[in-house]
Design a protein that fits this description.
- By secondary structure, this protein is an alpha+beta fold.
- The chain has one domain.
- The protein has 8 helices and 8 strands, in the order αβαβαββαβββααααβ.
- A hairpin with a 2-residue loop joins strand 3 and strand 4.
- The longest helix is centred in the last third of the chain and has 10 residues.
- The radius of gyration is 16 Å and the shape is globular.
- It starts with 17 loop residues before the first helix and ends with a strand.
- Pfam families: DUF6461.
C-alpha cells in the first residue's frame, strides 16, 4: 500500500488525523461516524441523542488534563452520561465523534437508510481497530485491522477501496511486512468523507452541535 494521501502535517506520529487526536482523551476508546446526506442534528438523534439535549457547541482551546475530551469539556461533565458526541458537516458529509465509543452498536443501518452512505470507525482502549461501511441500510463491508489484507481492499466497493488507497499505511516499528497500522480505519473513514486536509482549526470554524448521550 502507498503512503497516506493526506495533506502534510495533518497526521500524528501514530497515523491518526490530528483533529481526532486533539479531541480525544489519552488512551482513547472512541468512534467516528460519517454519513452522506444527513444533517448533524438528525445524525445525533439517530445515535441516541435526545433532541432537547442537542446544543450548539464551541470547543475550548485546550484540555485540563489527559483524561477529559474536548467535547466532554465543551458540553459540561454529566455523571449520568456515557459519552459526549460532537457533530458537524463538510461538503455534504456529516461526521459525529463519540469520545467514549458508546454508539458503535446498531447505528449504521439507520445512518445509511434511504439511499445514504455511512461508515463507522472504532478504536478501543485495547487497540482493537475496525470499520463498517453501509449503503441504503445494508452493511457492505466490515474491516478488522488485524485481519486486513490488500486482497480484501481490492474486493471492496469502489468508493471504499479508494478511501483505503488514500488512507495508505503509516510505517510503525510494530508492523510486519504487509501489515496495516491501527489508525488505517480512522484515516479511511476520513478519506471517505473528504477530510484528508482537515485540521482542528477547520473544525473550530464550523457550526458544531453536541450532546451527552447514554
Amino acid at each position: 500500500m502507498p503512503e497516506p494521501g493526506f495533506a502534510p502535517g495533518v497526521l500524528d506520529a501514530h497515523g491518526d488525523p490530528k483533529w481526532i487526536t486533539e479531541l480525544a482523551c489519552a488512551d482513547p476508546n472512541h468512534v467516528l461516524h460519517v454519513v452522506r446526506g444527513l444533517d448533524p442534528k438528525a445524525a445525533l438523534e439517530v445515535l441516541g441523542a435526545e433532541p432537547h439535549l442537542i446544543q450548539r457547541c464551541e470547543l475550548p482551546e485546550s484540555k485540563p488534563d489527559d483524561w477529559t475530551s474536548l467535547p466532554e469539556l465543551a458540553l459540561g461533565s454529566d455523571p449520568d452520561s456515557a459519552a459526549a458526541l460532537l457533530a458537524g458537516s463538510v461538503g455534504g458529509w456529516t461526521f459525529v465523534y463519540d469520545d467514549s465509543g458508546h454508539t458503535f452498536h446498531d447505528a449504521l443501518e439507520e445512518l445509511s437508510a434511504s439511499g445514504r452512505t455511512a461508515a463507522t470507525s472504532v478504536f478501543t482502549i485495547n487497540a482493537d481497530a475496525s470499520m463498517a461501511y453501509a449503503v441504503d441500510g445494508e452493511e457492505l463491508a466490515w474491516v478488522k485491522v488485524d485481519d486486513l489484507t490488500e486482497e480484501d481492499i481490492a474486493g471492496f466497493p469502489d468508493e471504499l477501496r479508494a478511501a483505503f488507497e488514500t488512507a495508505g499505511v503509516v510505517e510503525q516499528d510494530y508492523l510486519d511486512p504487509d501489515d496495516f497500522d491501527f489508525a488505517v480505519t480512522m484515516r479511511a473513514t476520513c478519506a471517505l468523507a473528504g477530510l484528508t486536509a482537515f485540521t482542528i482549526d477547520d473544525l473550530r470554524a464550523l457550526p458544531l452541535l453536541g450532546a451527552n448521550v447514554g
